[in-house]
Amino acid sequence: MCGIIGITSNKPVSSAIINSLKKLEYRGYDSAGIATLSDGFINEVKSEGRVENLEKNTNIKNMIGHVGIGHVRWATHGIPNTINAHPHSSESVSVVHNGIIENSTTLKKYLVSKGHKFKSQTDTEVIVHLITELQKEKNDFKNSILKMLNQLEGSFALAIIFNDQPDLIVGARRGSPLAVGYGPNENYLGSDSYSLKSMTNKISYLNDGEFCIVKRNQIEFFDVNGIKLNKKILKLSSNEQNYDKGDYKHFMAKEIDEQPITIQNCIREYIDNINNDINFYNFPWKMNDISSVILIGCGTAYHSCLVAKHWIEELTSLDVSIDIASEFRYRKNRFKKDNLYIFVSQSGETADTYAALDLCNKNNMKTASIVNVIESSIARDSNFVLPIHCGPEIGVASTKAFLGQMLVLYILILKISYLKKDINKNLYIEKIKSLKELPKLVEKTILTENKIQSISGTFTEAKGSMFLGRGLSYSIALEGALKLKELSYIHAEGYPAGEMKHGPLALIEDGMPVVVLAPRDDYYKKTISNMQEVIARGAKVLLITNKSKEEVVSENIWEKIEVENTSYDLMPFLLTIPLQKLAYYSALKKGYDIDKPRNLAKSVTVE
Ligand code: F6R
Questions:
Q1: For 379-389, what is each residue's pLDDT tens digit?
Q2: CATH number for domain 251-436, candidates 3.40.50.10490, 3.90.1150.10, 3.40.50.1820, 3.30.420.150
Q3: What is the pTM assigned to this prediction?
Q4: Angle at the Cα of 200 from the Cα atoms of 198 and 204, rounded to 5 degrees
Q5: Where does ligand 1 bind, in terms of residues with CB under 6 Å?
Q6: CA 528, CA 531: separation in Å to the nearest integer?
């Protein structure tokens, strides 16, 4: 993970670097640091924790350099402290790094034998010493960069400044994302376009293996062999207001409440209201050329794949499998030409998901991605992109992107099902009509908030909790458990309700909170029986079902929440809402940092 920034300008750059680092905090917030260059000297300031700690450091105001680099860290090698914080510098060079140098131990041994002394426990510091060592060889500048890059194994995005190059930053990318920005009398490097957006809307992206030399009035790009490249300059759309918390205390709360609007926007993008049809412009393949779909993602994005698997089985004749990206990328996969691989990722930068995509591309497979960030690496490198149109998601825990991912998957599946004649026109139109009702139903469901707020108290006092469901609701149970554990650090397990008797029932003890998802579908009666089994063993059950005239036939339910009514297919959207709120209020009660939970980051660019 980690976020990097670099600015070369005709004025001091430290405060602009700090501002950009604040925008990159979603990538890591263990420590932060900055280095600038003035009069041939590299000055470095670093702090543990948030960028605001760095900003308060009194040494920052003495940084008057016109060239500088900055970093926010998500620790991989070495504990999160000031020494391990980036930048890492020698007298002649300073480096910020996002990624992992896999051969750092070997390189360190070699450099130590050459007399280099290491200060930190990081893998990154080898880059500093390697450059310093190569400088002794008096190579031409570009060639020494190439030589250094060729010796590094692993993944990286780098920004490097040199004491004898007063107007210059070197950027390099292998595996981790890196954008270059063009400004008036200044130019930039950043882990993403978002961090550069307040300074420029003109961006280019480095591809894997490329590097660049960024000067105040010139940017040069090179490929892996040092051959000069021409780069397209992209113009970004600006919607800065979306990055604001407004009246909300946390981005997460805002992002939950925004969901009726974000799914409405997404529906508007894909659904032709007049003809009740779904439009996917430029879908690049013929339906007959696809017989199998493989859905790949991580974390919450993986849960959306799990939901989609059910939909594909229910609505189409396609074969379907799903995979966690970090597993897929290292397995022996059967690549077949009628497979369609769909990669789901909010950030579009998740290292494992990107690696899985890259593997499929290298095997000439059909690749599509469902992303939120359309300028991301995953979007750029897949054959076909379906954006979820939900606007920037800042809270580390994914909420509105999850609904967006499920929505785009559902719309895609519906269209495929219709085109393959797996459903007839009437059913297709009926399902599109139900879909158009969804924003209103999500909005109504969000209003169950007050009850959840008081219920969350029991979860915060518990040692652990379980989330149970069957069918589509099992996928949502997994998502509910993930949200609770990542935000409130309460142990939570999602389980298929029918599996409890095969082991996990032993965990149930008196007073343990258990969430049971039992909408009135074909699984309802079975799930209610499983619920009775946990109640009989002392569980405090929060039942989440949908509104119905029929009372739930069960005794001793601790609490019940009834979401709105919709079709079986669309129920996951509504069941998710109370679970998002439960996680939010539990973390709020515990006083935790809701938008930045410990040990996590929004964009996971390491494997
Ligand atoms: C959990 C969460 C993570 C992400 C996962 C994948 O709330 O946000 O599990 O879903 O890290 O991230 P993306 O979707 O950016 O690939």
A1: 989 999 999 98
A2: 3.40.50.10490
A3: 0.79
A4: 130
A5: 298-301, 345-347, 350, 353, 397-398, 482, 486, 604
A6: 5
